Amino acid sequence: MDAAEFRRRGKEMVDYVADYLENIEKRQVYPDVEPGYLRSLIPEEAPLEAESYEDVVKDIERVIMPGVTHWHSPYFYAYFPTAHSFPAMLADMLCGAIGCIGFSWAASPACTELETVMLDWLGKMLKLPEDFLAGTEGSGGGVIQGTASEATLIALLAARSKIVKLIQTDHPDRSETDIISKLVAYSSDQAHSSVERAGLIGGVRMKKIPTDSKFSVRGAALQKVLEEDRAAGLIPFFFCATLGTTPSCAFDCITELGPICNAEKIWMHIDAAYAGSAFICPEFRPLLNGIEFADSFNFNPHKWLLVNFDCSAMWVKKRSDIIGAFKIEPLYLKHDHQESGNQSHWQIPLGRRFRSLKMWFVFRMYGLKGLQAYIRKVTAFNPSFFSPFHLHYMFWTCTSEDSVLVGKYRAYRPYF
Ligand SMILES: Cc1ncc(COP(=O)(O)O)c(C=O)c1O
User: Is the CB of 148 under 6 A from ligand 1?
Assistant: First the structure.
């Protein structure tokens, strides 16, 4: 395919996508196929000789679409919504075209720098404390992770590394293995399974703190477990609070939990994977009060802020805590301006896509007012939004209510 054909095919593909989304309600939302359906529809091996573009495109409707669950259908009521918008799709196309692997500032300066600035923009929309912003001189800042699960894992691993160093400063004779064997991390008994998984991957004990009648972890419950565990010779080092738990949309009481974590030198990470987008509206921002006590915070713009998957925004108060935990710089990656803020030291893979382009397009083309209007439009279908339970209810049913109340779902969908 040369550039001339790409122009032609690209326009056809944009038409296909626009038709798909404009008519998505005509498709059966859940596919009518059995496991293994696809193998019988395509050859056992990759073709030896090149096929034509027409052949490939023909198979989208024959092979792919029959097995697609249409997440953006107005009849999709499962799981939770996943975000998308036309500006984000166009930005993703540009990301593919630039095709950089942004593992250092020099590998693509715009990739590193736009991400830093976009996380500052978004942090300001959420009214995060200054400590979380990179600015030009700040010691905090944000990074785009693939998912909330990755963010929790990174936070836990950084906290593990920090506590080991702290203990070894006073007790240089204590081995890392000995310290890690005593570490204990905590989360709500309502927390997402990814938190427990972070503990498994991080090789540390993970305990669930019982919640109150509103499924919220309270300070007293954490304090009690901490006292028991310290008495048993364990070392508490990490607490993952959730704002908007998966099963019940409960909010842990971070105004009580934060001061305890700070006093006990426990890293507090906040997982607000799906509820977090709402905090850009001043009327929902109080749900984030207590963020000032956290060491790290994460939510997924790809769930509710019009940015396509994958885009999970994570902030830390001290970049050095994360960089200190993961930084290894072999000779072949060394370059001038090495300290210019590249985020590959904040994540597990080395390579990174230019994901901040999606944020840049969406933030500019909607503006904060447009994004707030979008959140409000969704929440408007539920007058009791301020109840966390209703937030959950609203979130899981907005599409159906939309089509019922508005009659025509297009009135609500972001790209109309
Ligand atoms: C509260 C919470 N945390 C974490 C996750 C996992 O999100 P991800 O797929 O981004 O890892 C979810 C998913 O729904 C969630 O609701």
Answer: yes
Whole-number Å distance, alpha carbon 347 to ligand 1 midpoint, is 17
Write the CB contacts of 296 (distance below 8 Å, at least 6 apart in sequence).
151, 155, 158, 267, 268, 269, 270, 314, 315, 316, 317
Predicted confidence band of residue 77 (pLDDT cuts 50, 70, 90): confident
CB contact at 8 A, 174 and 167: yes
> What pTM was computed for the model?
0.89
DSSP-assigned beta bridge partners for residue 240 = 187, 269
C-beta of 321 in contact with ligand 1 (< 6 A): no
CA of 311 to the centre of ligand 1 (A): 12
Q: Can you give the pLDDT at residue 338?
A: 65
Which residue out of 152, 196, 246 has the highest number of ligand 1 atoms within 8 Å of its CB and is therefore the one to mutate? Answer: 246
Count the residues in the chain: 416
Over the stretch 251-293, which tens digit does the pLDDT of each residue have?
999 999 999 999 999 999 999 999 999 999 999 999 999 999 9
Confidence of residue 413 (pLDDT cuts 50, 70, 90): very low
Across the strands, what pairs with 142? Answer: 315
Report how far apart, in Å, the C-alpha atoms of 223 and of each of 66, 116, 232, 239 are.
52, 36, 14, 12
Tell how far the Cα of 273 is from the centroid of ligand 1, in angstroms: 5
328 alpha carbon – ligand 1 mean position (Å) = 29
